[in-house]
Write a structure and sequence with these properties.
Number of helices: 8
Helix content: 25-40%
Structural class: alpha/beta
Radius of gyration: 19 Å
Shape: globular
Strand order of the largest sheet: 3-2-1-4
Order of helices and strands: HHHHEHEHHEHE
Distance between the termini: 24 Å
Strand content: 5-15%
Bound molecules: iron/sulfur cluster
Number of strands: 4
């Protein structure tokens, strides 16, 4: 797990002169700027998955990052100015819903997020259950902080019905209620859990 606060302390206290970063810069290209500004809580954490970086290198395809859709595609995915702010209803507070809300808010739209559970995490919670997957939980916590920083209204324990959507008066609706895990047999399935 990369720890920006530890990195900052190490430099400030003279424990070391240089800190070398690899994957964390793919996850957040503004890592060093945020570190310098003391905004460590805004640094998007790398989740050590290797899906978009080393995994892509191994298959000779275009590098990317699981938590930063703009990585290596900065020119094509740059946030363009908007002509008219839209009110956007987002159903689902997992990664997809939070990322949609984050980008919409940065671009000047007015997203509003509804999550039927009592926290923002989606599949990051079961995914982060093993001790060595703690970075998944760090990502969920980062999204919760980003929603607060960007002043996105978040409604927890809020089930949204079709009627709610129709009468709410939003310009656009994004359904981000997740997917079902692929289930396959491992033989003795009595001890296999899929959330
Ligand atoms: S793809 Fe995964 S491991 Fe690689 S930089 Fe992104 S979050 Fe980190």
């Amino acid at each position: 797990m990369d720890d920006p606060d530890m990195a900052l302390s190490a430099i400030e206290e003279g424990v070391c002169d240089v800190i070398d970063l690899g994957r964390p810069l793919l996850a957040d290209p503004d890592y060093c700027n945020k570190l310098k500004a003391g905004r460590t809580g805004e640094i998007r954490p790398c989740i050590s998955c290797h899906e978009g970086c080393m995994g892509r290198v191994a298959e000779y395809s275009l590098i990317n990052c699981a938590v930063n859709p703009q990585a290596a595609r900065e020119r094509f995915t740059a946030y363009e100015p908007i002509l008219r702010p839209k009110k956007v209803l987002i159903v689902g507070g997992g990664v997809a819903g939070c990322e949609a809300a984050r980008v919409l808010a940065i671009r000047g739209h007015q997203p509003e997020l509804f999550e039927k559970g009592d926290r923002l995490d989606g599949n990051l919670l079961p995914g982060g259950a093993p001790e060595f997957k703690e970075d998944d939980i760090a990502l969920a916590e980062w999204y919760a902080r980003e929603m607060e920083r960007l002043q996105v209204p978040v409604h927890l324990n809020a089930m949204v019905t079709k009627g709610d959507v129709l009468k709410a008066g939003f310009d656009t609706v994004i359904i981000a209620t997740g997917s079902s895990p692929k289930v396959f047999s491992l033989g003795d399935d009595a001890h296999v859990y899929t959330d």
